[in-house]
Amino acid sequence: MSHGGFTTCLWFDGQAEEAAHYYVSVFKDSGIGRVTRWSEAGPGEPGTVLTVEFTANGQKFVALNGGPEFTFSEAVSFMIICADQREIDHYWTRLTEDGGEGGPCGWLKDKYGVSWQVCPERLLEMTNDPDPQKAARAFGAMMKMHKLDLAALEKAYAGE
Questions:
Q1: Are 57 and 24 in contact (CB under 8 A)?
Q2: What are phi and psi of 97, to 5 degrees?
Q3: Suppose 103 and one of 9, 94, 107, 145 were both cysteines; which one would form an S-S bond, judging by CB atoms 3.0 to 4.6 Å apart?
Q4: Counting runs of H as helices and runs of E as strands, what totals does the chain give?
Q5: Which of 114, 9, 111, 123 is nearest to 60 (CA)?
Q6: In what order do the strands lie in the sheet with 101-102?
Q7: pTM summary value
Q8: Alpha-carbon distance 55 to 25, whole Å?
Q9: Mapping DSSP to helix (H, G, I), strand (E, B) and coil, where does residue 133 land?
Q10: Distances (CA, A) of 124 to 15, 97, 137, 141, 146
């Protein structure tokens, strides 16, 4: 692992390698790095995967097979800033597949229980508009959505 910046450690119960490969398949600028296996020292089964270092969307992660003690919650989520509806659709579809689930306001949980916010960059501009009515209309529209619809957000923002 290189020095500097952050590496996010994601705790899994046996699915670390599978999850790392999954995230690498979803995001550009991604790849698998070093894989560490349990040794005879234990406590895991010797030879089985302990950690997998990977990069997803240019961000550094390590997936750890830590066991069943801890699970993911919405208290931590990863925000994916999207350029357009095509990107929103891609990430929403890929991250909710095979048992993931959509939630309110652009939030979702993937099949491992990791929370994501799939958000168009334009929404951040709209909700921070100096005109409080425009910002409120965009925010109000977002609050009624699951997967975000950029065209509908733009219409609400414009007061149409």
A1: no
A2: -70, 160
A3: 107
A4: 5, 8
A5: 9
A6: 77-82, 115-120, 107-109, 101-102
A7: 0.93
A8: 11
A9: helix
A10: 34, 26, 13, 13, 16
**Block residue for tokens 């790849």:** 31
C-alpha to C-alpha distance for 106 and 125, rounded to whole angstroms: 16
In the predicted model, what is the mean pLDDT of residues 148-152?
Answer: 98
CA distance readout (Å), 23 to 61, 110, 115: 10, 10, 13
- Over residues 103-129, the pLDDT tens digits come to 999 999 999 999 999 999 999 999 999
d(C-alpha 135, C-alpha 57), whole Å: 29
Is the dihedral angle over the CA atoms 77, 83, 84, 90 positive or is it negative?
negative
CA atoms of 46 and 61, how far apart (whole Å): 23
- pLDDT tens across 91-105, in order? 999 999 999 999 999
Other C-beta atoms lying within 10 Å of the C-beta of residue 78: 18
Cβ-contact 62, 87 below 8 angstroms: no
Contact predicate 68/14, CB 8 Å = no
Q: Look up tokens 């992660």; give the residue.
A: 61
**Two tokens at 17?**
């390698």
